[in-house]
Specification:
Shape: elongated
Helix content: 25-40%
Strand content: 25-35%
Radius of gyration: 24 Å
CATH superfamily of the largest domain: NAD(P)-binding Rossmann-like Domain
Distance between the termini: 56 Å
CATH architecture of the largest domain: 3-Layer(aba) Sandwich
Number of strands: 19
């Protein structure tokens, strides 16, 4: 019986899930690969804490180099996250002829092409299903399911923490800080939630999917990224009255020689399937030119869902090893062809509809001043609502929806308006996304 040896770097939540699945499903995995998959080594800084997994003596080590340089290990699984030392360890593993499985979206976003090129040079496989969407098989779907089609674009809820927070705010009317604190207490949010709530994690995942969808290399720094920390219950409530929900979306669509790729809170119609995705779940809505609209939904994080995606990658590579092949499915749509540079559409050139909330003194002339500034900057108003009246000369909320306008024009108008003494505080701007932006 052929044995395929696995070395695991990182024994945290997901690493524990991988070990549990390899133990629990050993017989099933043998049936599906024709080989015994052995967890030969696990490297972690903490090798004393019990994870509830039975391990043979000598499996645990504190040295990741002991795994990447071990000639008996066939597949290296990297689950430590971040850029370094993950990048160094993966490149060393590839140099030593080892196949690699990783869930590291930040590393793939920044250095994916370097890793893929190194794998091609040594004739080994790199698999990264768990890097986007946890247990949702979106990577394999884009690599194989759309092999005969062209992807026009996609919308995604790609961060469970942000979606959990927005869902709680929507259902309970609670404010952002209160829900975030509770999410941290329950383990849905990290002690430092910046990557999640400011959209950075979503942008990393967007960049990975963008490469798969359009077969090129984009500069992640060019992806406009905005988080959810400024969203208030007032905005959520008014959006609901208008028939929308607020979601943090990854938005991507092809526009000729450039790609519209951005991450920001969005008003999305309640009838849209993505609007129904609640809690910590993820979903990706993909538009194929031939197949049309498709949607993939599931748990975007967690020990067992993400661990399952990692083990699925191990199984895929194990099958290749048994058959004596590698690179059967190209990492990216155009195989060994040199990557084309993808130009990200500048955010200033994006055209969309907007939700605006102004805090203004309740007196005559306010609405005409606002509409005048918008009109001078080529922004047409779809509807306007003022909530309540105020006779104490403090501020009231004015809500507006615009027709489609150019981002640069909107920002110019906002800068002009915020100089007016009748407006108090910062204007809330949330973009409206009805569907995947049409290619232009």
């Amino acid at each position: 019986m052929k044995t395929i040896s696995v070395g695991l770097i990182g024994f945290g939540t997901v690493g524990t899930g991988v070990a549990k699945i390899l133990e629990k499903n050993a017989g099933l995995l043998y049936q599906r690969t024709g080989a015994h998959i052995e967890l030969k080594k696990i490297a972690d800084l903490d090798i004393k804490r019990s994870r509830g997994v039975r391990l043979k003596k000598g499996v645990l080590t504190t040295s990741a180099d002991e795994i990447v340089n071990n000639p008996e290990i066939d597949i290296v699984v990297e689950l430590i996250g971040g850029i370094e030392p993950a990048r160094r360890l993966i490149l060393k593993a590839l140099e030593n002829g080892k196949h690699v499985v990783t869930a590291n979206k930040a590393l793939l976003s920044a250095h994916g092409w370097e890793i893929f090129s190194a794998a091609r040079l040594t004739g080994v496989d790199v698999a990264f299903e768990a890097s986007v969407g946890g247990g949702i098989p979106i990577i394999r779907t884009m690599q194989e399911g759309f092999a005969s089609d062209r992807i026009s674009g996609f919308l995604g809820i790609l961060n469970g923490t942000s979606n959990y927070i927005l869902s709680r705010m929507t259902d309970e009317g609670a404010d952002f800080k209160a829900v975030l604190k509770d999410a941290q207490a329950q383990g849905y949010a990290e002690a430092d939630p910046t990557f999640d709530v400011e959209g950075i994690d979503t942008a990393h995942k967007l960049n990975v999917l963008l490469s798969l969808a359009f077969g090129g290399k984009a500069d992640p720094k060019k992806i406009y990224t905005e988080g959810i920390s400024s969203i208030t219950p007032l905005d959520i409530d008014f959006a609901r009255q208008l028939g929308y929900k607020i979601k943090l979306l990854a938005i991507c669509s092809g526009h000729g020689s450039e790609i519209d790729a951005r991450v920001h809170p969005s008003l999305i119609p309640e009838k849209h399937m993505l609007a129904q995705v609640g809690g910590a779940f993820n979903a990706i809505f993909v538009q194929g030119q031939d197949v049309g609209p498709t949607m993939f939904y599931g748990r975007g994080a967690g020990m067992m869902p993400t661990g399952s995606a990692v083990v699925a990658d191990i199984v895929s590579i194990a099958r290749n090893i048994v058959k004596g092949v590698s690179d059967r499915v190209p990492l990216l749509p155009y195989g060994s062809k040199a990557p084309k540079a993808i130009r990200i559409k500048p955010m200033s050139d994006v055209q969309t509809r907007y939700y605006l909330r102004f805090s203004a003194v309740d007196k005559p002339g306010v609405l005409s001043s606002i509409s005048g500034a918008l009109g001078r900057n080529h922004i047409s108003i779809h509807s306007v609502v003022q909530k309540g009246r105020d006779t104490s000369n403090t501020a009231v909320s004015i809500f507006m929806l615009t027709h489609e306008a150019k981002e640069s024009d909107l920002q110019k108008a906002i800068r002009q308006l915020e100089k007016l003494s009748m407006l108090k505080g910062k204007t809330m701007v949330i973009r409206i996304v009805e569907d995947i932006p049409a290619a232009g």
